[in-house]
Amino acid sequence: MADLWVGANEQYKTIASAIKASKTGDTVYVRAGTYINDSASIDHDLNVIGVGGPVVLKATKWLDNGKAILITHGNVHLENLEFTGATASANNGEGVRMSDGHLEVVNCYFHDNEEGILTGDNADATLVISNSRFERNGFGDGYTHGVYVNHIASVTVTDSYFAEQKEGHHLKSRAAVTVVTNNIFDDGNSTTSYSIDMPSGGVGVIKGNYIYQGAKSDNPVAIHFGGEQTTKWPNSSLTVEGNVIVNDRAGGMVVANSMPDALATVDGNTIWGQTTTNAFNGPVAAHDNLFMNSTDPAAPTSVTVLKAWLAGWLVPVNGISSHAYANDITAVTTTGVALSGAGKGLVISGSALNDRLSGNYGPDTLAGGAGDDVYIVHTNKTLVAEASNAGTDTIYSDVSYVLPSNVENLVLNNSTWGIATGNALDNVLVGDKRSTLDGGAGDDTLIAGSTQTTMIGGTGDDAFVFRSYAAAGSVINDFQLGHDRIDLTALGLPATAVGDGTIQFKASGDGTDIWVGTSNLVHLKNISAGALSAADLWVSNAPRERMVVEQVITSTSGNDNIVGGSASTTVIMPNQSYASSTITTSGASTIISGVNGTDTLTGVQRVKFSDGMLLLDLGPKALVGEAYRLYTAALGRQPDEGGLKVQADALTNGTSLVQLAQNFLNSAEFVARFGAGDSGAYVDALYQNVLGRLPDAAGRAVQVDALAHGLSRANLLANFSESAENHALTAPLTVMGAFVPMQFDGV
């Protein structure tokens, strides 16, 4: 058995060429990068494993073979690969097509294909999927799906995430045995049909999943059993147990069993949006299910996170300080890292530190606890719960949102015509495009967005802030003379701007326009021009902090010069990946070139690419690089943002690399992934995690012998982490800061 390497500096430049050269039992290792139209047929037992970062298999035209990016025969293992763009003339281009044998898919990402995975009919074939993601797959005709399993022996899907397939199902299986455990199925705002469809019956086991049937779903049923074919598996049965199921679809149903001679057993589920009279159809035996409606006296006030989700896509495990599982649930306790909710009915709790909590498209409750917390909100169904005097907190929302009690700041982000409504505190409200900002009570700071903004200060002494002339045409509805101020300090005007005529007050309609040079910046309703004076403006020195919250700036298609403010600044690069960008520095500036042009960034802390986040502010680059390398060495994956910051801060504050290595070895994630193991197994794990390859015999013997003669495992981990080979592998991801891939960027 041989190892074959694919990459720009490897023997094989394409995956197809390495597969063609491989023999039965070989392993093809693929370096991080994007491989365009690199399709192949695997005709023997083979392992294909991505190493060193995202390995993207991208189709940009109809597949030459008319089927899939990868076609598999025999026993095939696929790991750490991303499949996207698969199309075919028959409208069913797949990321992967399994023809026969056994296929194992681990930690892979399938998105924006006409079909994620498709299997052929083969009575002996088996498919196993774990820790993988399926998003936005489907042609849109209802016949293509996230995963489509035909008549095979069995399919097992665990610890995986399915979201927003196009018209088809998340998972369709005609297998004799279908086992689906500890996954998330999330329609979001899409038109996905069934979450899980088993049209031929068989033995179905659906346990410990989170299933959300969206309001726009193409079908009201979440789980469909035996409803399509006249020829069905004999001795069929269905078990649906211990799931959280939310159905927002009008006329929705949890389980529809269309097999009169097969029983569906539905036990111990938490069900939202249904009642006992409309949840099931067909032969169903239901016991101990909890229906979350307002008349149910037993309805709890929160739903905890299932253990498997904690270890999978919901949240990065590193930084979770409590793993005291009770049965299959755990409370989420963090040490200040980023957490992300499934989006339908979960309570995501933070820590006493500064947390970054993200909801999804549904009724999650985000509770940060003490600390200065950041909340990411995509729907006004997401609730934010904060205690009094528990830090200064900020919500970033894609939609109109009302600040709840005890939360200070609200930023409209990627929102057009959004309304930000304050509370009784001294709020900071930040607009986006054509926003309305309503401060309410308190001394509020209202910051105009990237286009004209409507501002309502409410009671209190309010500040109306203009950071650029792009907000020209804005309106202030209730400016209070002697109390409110208009802050123009970001425009770089001289202190004499009112006296020298740069700023002019001109009567207009029901009030006064304030002109700055040739820009009609803002209209003040019910205020006469003669009543205004320089005392109503802050021109060069504002006594109030103008930007106390993180700002988000979107790069345009031209060459932008972006300067961050006094707050943390994130720049979004639309449709531009980190892998395709050229990044250099010039003095204190970072220069990024790509499909959006060449941008110069100064005072920017984070850059959001389509494939992840570049972090520029975690500390000295040398120490950040050490933390990054150690993270990947210990856990075999790239770091989440919060966890990486914790490790970089520890090194900055004097913790030794060896002590940090020991902390990783003691972590629950390391123990769960690798266990105690003997010295040989430990060395094997380091070679795979750190160097992305199996050990050579001589090198393995040297390391095992060193452990036998007293070298600690922590020292060996640190040595591997700082090896020249690992430096070379991680350099592209750490040379300009730290790149965190999409699944761990915390947004």
UniProtKB/TrEMBL annotation:
Keywords: Repeat, Secreted. Residues 661-729 form the DUF4214 domain. The keyword Secreted applies. Its cofactor is Ca(2+). It comes from the Bacteria. One of its GO terms (cellular component) is extracellular space. GO terms for molecular function: calcium ion binding. Residues 122-274 form the Right handed beta helix domain. It is found in: Secreted. The keyword Secreted applies. Residues 439-494 form the Peptidase M10 serralysin C-terminal domain. Signal peptide: none annotated. This is Right handed beta helix domain-containing protein.
